[in-house]
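During the practical work, I selected for study one protein's amino acid sequence and its backbone structure tokens, as given directly below:
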Amino acid sequence: MMVDSGATTNQGPIVDMISEKDGDGGYVTGGWKSEDGKLSYGYSSFRGKRATMEDFYDIKTSKINGQMVCMFGIFDGTTSDVIGEDLSLKCGTGLSPYLVFNLSYLISGWSLKSFRWLAYSILVAVLWSFVMVFESFALVSVFSPFVLEFSWHGGSHAAEYLKQHLFENLMKHPKFITDTKLAISETYPQTDVDFLDSERNTYRDDGSTASTAVLVGNHLYVANVGDSRTIISKAGEAIPLSEDHKPNRTDERKRIENAGGVVMWAGTWRVGGVLAMSRAFGDRMLKQFVVAEPEIQDKEIDEEFELLVLASDGLWDVVPNEDAVSLAGAEEPEKAARKLTEAAFTRGSADNITCIVVRFHHEKAAPVNPKHE
């Protein structure tokens, strides 16, 4: 998961000072501190209990027009939401609920109008009833060879594509420095289009989240697509800078339904009973509803900003925002990131766990000596 070193754009060199260390138990960690001492970061990535690693991350630094530019990104392949968590169940017991949803979705077609969702919903209910009957008579194992062929939904290709292209595309945007927010809002959906085009002749239907933080001078831009998350510690308080894109979010559900889709309960709330997030890169079959338009927050870094934490949902599923800030404490970023991933694993996370911690170092004002007469 190394990033390219020494890549250049017309705006100057992009420098990546990542030195990965494969530590105990497969943890990959590293860190760096800026020359002026104002910024340091660390990262930790761990496969955890999963059979495969579908988290990717990217960190790039550059100096443009005399100011430091840093980009941090976490990309989590959406396999974890569709089949990853139940893959062992599928292999062992045969027909999974996810197979039912995937097959019924394929039958109804991926270019759907509202009335088709009605037929789709009925089909899901009928097939689910058959599954219950099969399971009760222990006949479901007959379908075992049939499961992996139709329910495969790999996420690592999409996440890896974002790692390789998203920030490169962003830095090529003509208004990257002058209007960073606009550049992000245009680059992310276009990168999604590019990825889907690159997958046109494959049989995959990959997807990925993206939680990114772009620092241009003292201005921070946090963009989110999916359910990876970014928080900041300000004066000791944990403040979320992104809101998870879940299908049951009132505004997201309304957007999906206005586009002709449905949100269904299938262990958790899912778009069409399939995907447990409402925005993502990729996911071609659900693209009409699962968009890659980022929600963006921008902040000006001041002396109360202490640290920034970006992580995949493997951490946030078991570590609340306040705990993340508390656990990171005053640790050096690399140690803090490792500590957070270890805490998530200890608390029972069943997902890949990837975390980036960025610490802001502010100059302390010199004490004023009182005058003595």
